[in-house]
């Protein structure tokens, strides 16, 4: 095409484009029809997967070649006969429980480990604003075992421990704490100490703490009962404990409070202006036992330190018998004989109980208590 003709054509097209009328909106009659099978774009909400149930907890207690660990039925039993057994003053519970009054805290207080669930417990000392001991327990499907103490806090010596690691698996558990101690560094200066504790199963399946057997709350059964000797023993020979003046100190009030709780009573049930509680004391295996009657003419409670062992409608008698120490108590006029295990803070019934029934019920011997 000649160059003159091509230039003229391009000029005409440019003019036409500039002068073309603007596009008109489509009328409803001319709009495209909606196609039923046209693709639709919307959000597809996928429900969150349900959490997987945790593997079942295994049994706790036997410990391979190490001494057997004592099994506690629940957390309350663990506190009462495990953590508080030696010195019962204080409050005990799971770490983070506000009722304990503890200042120690951790963002993670339990973890799966060693075939069960490892949990942190704290014992807060009463009459001390800032003093706590932290313990590790392992929960299985049959109860708890106490593996050891993992931290201590006393505001006069250190800051509350900071838990840096609490991690476990099927065969091991690691706990790391960081703590500022005063007067522990050079020239009695402050020092920050990291403490690492490990719990692991050995080749025989025993749980060891830092390669050693745990030494807390061991299951050390008393010698076997000689039931023939038990049935033939003269239980009326068990002596009365020595009468003592009621101790109204803080420790005495704490003991009375625990005795009231064992009887299902409260402070409102006793007359603060009436006669003081009656009390008798004796020592067995280097430990103090108290027999206390909180209310006049009411029931008696046998206490080991501040742990209630049993109650009785008459004054409890305590003494040595076949293969151990025993307590003689009554339910109404019915006599009962218990063998004492002061290590576990228990009074196991033997008559009636492991050695059968008592042949003759006690009639009116000595002082008879009238139960309200």
UniProtKB/TrEMBL annotation:
Q: Is-annotated flag, keyword Metal-binding?
A: no
Source organism's superkingdom? Bacteria
Signal peptide limits: 1-16
Name recorded for this polypeptide? Lipoprotein
Q: Which UniProt keyword terms apply here?
A: Signal
Acidic residues bias located where? 357-372
Give a yes or no for keyword Transferase in this entry: no
**Which residue stretches belong to region Disordered?**
44-63, 348-372
